[in-house]
Specification:
Layout (H helix, E strand, L loop, with lengths): L3 E10 L5 H10 L5 E2 L12 E2 L13 H4 L4 H17 L11 E6 L5 H13 L9 H5 L3 H10 L5 E4 L5 H14 L5 E8 L4 H10 L28 E9 H6 L6 E10 L10 H14 L8 E3 L6 H15 L7 E3 L2 H4 L6 H15 L1 E2 L22 E2 L4 E8 L3 E8 L3
Parallel strand pairs: 4-5, 4-6, 9-10, 9-13
Antiparallel strand pairs: 1-7, 1-8, 2-3, 6-7, 8-14, 11-12, 13-14
C-alpha cells in the first residue's frame, strides 16, 4: 500500500491566524474565547464564543470576490493558502488530474443562511442575494479551493457534524493510499457564530456561559466543567504520497498511518463507549500500531459532563493498563469547538506536537473528577518526544472519526 505523509499545513482560528501563532498560543495556554462582537448578543444567555478577533474579509479578498464567499469558505481558502505555501509545492499541468480536495463542514454557509432568512422573514424582502445558493452549499469550500489551486482530481465535501473534517482527512488519506490521487488538500471550515446558530445551541443547554470570564469558560475533564464553547475557523493539510513527496524534496511534517470510522447507531446526542472504541481500534489496526505504542491523544474533549466522562471510558476500554501512561489533552479549552473544522484544527495541533516535541495542555483544568481520572496534561504544556499520536472526533449523531499519525524520522 502507498504511504501518505503531511507536507503542508494551514490554520486560521481564534488562537492564531497561521499555524505557528496558533500552536504558540496553545503551548502558552492562551484562550481565544471572548465576548461575541459579530452581532448584538445581549439578548442571549450565552454571550461568548471563540471568535477570530477583528477579522475583516477585505484584508484577504477583493470585494467582487466576496459576493461569492460565505465566511466559512473564506476561512477555508486562507488556511488552504498557508498549507500550499508551507508545502513549497508547484503543481504541474500533468499532475492536476491527480490533485484532489476533500473538505468538511458541519454547517456550510451559516452566515449566509442567517442573512437570507432575516431578509426574507423579518424584512419581507422577497428577492434574495443571487449567489445565496453558491454561498451556503457545503461543497463551496471544496469548489473554491479547487479553482484557486487548479486541483482537478477527486473533490468531495463531508458533513458529519463535529467529525466532518476528521472524515474528510480520512477520505483524503484513502484516496492517496489506494491510488486515486497523489496529493489532496483536506481539512475543514465552519463559521457558526451567528445569532440564529447561537440561539439553536442555546436551546440544547450544553454551552458554558462563562460570561463573567470567557477565557476560562471551557474546562474539559475538570470536575467544575460547565459545557462547551462554540468556535470558528479552518484548518487544511496537504496530504501527499510518500514517493511523490520525496521526489520533489518536500519537508515532511508527519505520516498519516491509519484512520478509524464508526457509527454508534444508538442515540442522536448521547455518545456510547463502543462506537468510538471501535474507531480507535480500526485506526490502530490500519496503522499496524499496538495500543502501548501510542504516546499522545488529542481528545475530542468538549467540556460537557457526558462527553468527557464517556471519552475517558473509551480510552480505558481500548488502552487498558496503558491508558494511565498516555498524555491526553483537549485544545478545545482554548480554540473552542469549531464544529466541522475542529478535527482538522486539532490534527494540526497533534502533528505540530509530534514535530516539536511539545504537548499543548488542557487549559482551565481546576479540579480532578473521579469519572475523568487520566493524565490530561493540565494547564501547562509538556515537553515529550512523541512517536505515535491519535486525534479523536466524536459527533452528534454518533459518527466517529479517529486519525493516527506517526512522527516522521
Amino acid at each position: 500500500m502507498r504511504r501518505v505523509v503531511i507536507t503542508g499545513m494551514g490554520v486560521f482560528s481564534s488562537t492564531g491566524r497561521d499555524r505557528h501563532s496558533f500552536f504558540e498560543s496553545l503551548v502558552q495556554g492562551r484562550s481565544g474565547v471572548r465576548r461575541i462582537s459579530q452581532f448584538d448578543s445581549s439578548s442571549l444567555s450565552i454571550q461568548i464564543a471563540a471568535e477570530i478577533d477583528g477579522y475583516d474579509p477585505n484584508d484577504y479578498f477583493p470585494s467582487k470576490r466576496l459576493d461569492m464567499l460565505d465566511k466559512f469558505a473564506q476561512f477555508a481558502l486562507i488556511a488552504a493558502g498557508e498549507a500550499m505555501e508551507s508545502s513549497g509545492i508547484t503543481v504541474s499541468d500533468e499532475e492536476r488530474p491527480r490533485f484532489g480536495v476533500v473538505m468538511g463542514s458541519g454547517l456550510g454557509g451559516a452566515g449566509s443562511y442567517d442573512a437570507g432568512y432575516h431578509n426574507l422573514y423579518a424584512k419581507q424582502i422577497t428577492r434574495l442575494h443571487p449567489y445565496t445558493i453558491p454561498r451556503v452549499m457545503h461543497n463551496a469550500a471544496t469548489s473554491h479551493i479547487c479553482m484557486e489551486f487548479g486541483a482537478q482530481g477527486p473533490a468531495l465535501a463531508t458533513s458529519t457534524a463535529c467529525s466532518s473534517s476528521g472524515h474528510a482527512i480520512a477520505e483524503a488519506f484513502h484516496l492517496i493510499k489506494f491510488g486515486l490521487a497523489d496529493m489532496v488538500l483536506s481539512g475543514g471550515a465552519d463559521a457558526p457564530i451567528t445569532y440564529g446558530v447561537m440561539r439553536c445551541w442555546e436551546a440544547v443547554r450544553i454551552l458554558s456561559s462563562g460570561n463573567g470570564n470567557p477565557a476560562t469558560a471551557c474546562r474539559p475533564f475538570s470536575a467544575d466543567r460547565k459545557g462547551m464553547v462554540i468556535g470558528e475557523g479552518a484548518a487544511v493539510l496537504l496530504l501527499e504520497e510518500l514517493d511523490h513527496a520525496i521526489k520533489r524534496g518536500a519537508t515532511i511534517y508527519g505520516e498519516v498511518a491509519g484512520c478509524g470510522m464508526s457509527s454508534d447507531a444508538s442515540h442522536i446526542t448521547q455518545p456510547t463507549v463502543d462506537g468510538p472504541a471501535r474507531a480507535i481500534r480500526m485506526a490502530l489496526a490500519e496503522a499496524g500500531v499496538a495500543p502501548q505504542e501510542v504516546d499522545y491523544i488529542n481528545a475530542h474533549g468538549t467540556g460537557t459532563r457526558l462527553n468527557d466522562a464517556t471519552e475517558t471510558q473509551v480510552i480505558k476500554e481500548v488502552f487498558r493498563e496503558h491508558a494511565g501512561k498516555l498524555a491526553i489533552s483537549s485544545t478545545k479549552s482554548m480554540h473552542g469547538h469549531a464544529m466541522g473544522a475542529t478535527g482538522a484544527i486539532e490534527l494540526v495541533a497533534t502533528v505540530m506536537a509530534l514535530e516539536r516535541g511539545v504537548i499543548p495542555p488542557t487549559a482551565n483544568y481546576a479540579q480532578p473528577d473521579p469519572e475523568c481520572d487520566l493524565d490530561y496534561v493540565p494547564n501547562q504544556a509538556r515537553e515529550k518526544r512523541i512517536r505515535v499520536a491519535i486525534s479523536n472526533s466524536f459527533a452528534f449523531g454518533g459518527l466517529n472519526a479517529v486519525l493516527l499519525v506517526r512522527r516522521w524520522e
